[in-house]
Amino acid sequence: MDGIAAYKENTISTASPGKLIVILYEGAINFLNQAVVELEGGNVGEKGKLIVKAMDIIVELNCCLDTDAGGEAAMSLRRLYHFMHRHLSEANAKADPRPIREVVELLKELNEGWKAISI
After folding, report:
1. How many structural domains are present in the chain?
2. Per-residue DSSP letters for 30-90?
3. Is the Cβ–Cβ distance between 32 and 87 less than 8 Å?
4. Which residue has the higher pLDDT, 93 or 2?
């Protein structure tokens, strides 16, 4: 394992739950920003791979929600994650950057909130 990989692994394995959520949001945002670049460059295949990676992160965030402890806030997040997933599926199928950008803005807003309470 090289130094960068070891650093990343250590960062993730020692992060608080809130920090992990921030890392996941940032990963999804980065994948989606890259997807827009690939789409605009005509690389539809790579765009699709990047969107799927972001969708996988959103699915994981959704699966980890504790709706019993989180109540209505967790249910609202669940609905938002479902919306994002549908929007990204549409963007992928239609090769449309607009829904990707909309999801990026939502993720950025959520990420700022998590940063405020967890870092």
Report:
1. 1
2. HHHHHHHHHHHTT-HHHHHHHHHHHHHHHHHHHHT--HHHHHHHHHHHHHHHHHHHHHHHH
3. no
4. 93
Q: Tokens 């799927």 identify what position? A: 52
**How distant, in Å, are the alpha carbons of 46, 62, 110 from that of 43?**
6, 29, 29
CATH number where 104 lies? 1.20.120.340
Residue range of the domain that includes 90: 3-118
- pLDDT for 31-59, tens place per residue? 999 999 999 999 999 999 999 999 999 99
For residues 27 and 57, the answer to whether their CB atoms sit within 8 Å is: yes
CA angle in degrees (0–180, nearest 5) for 49-54-58: 145
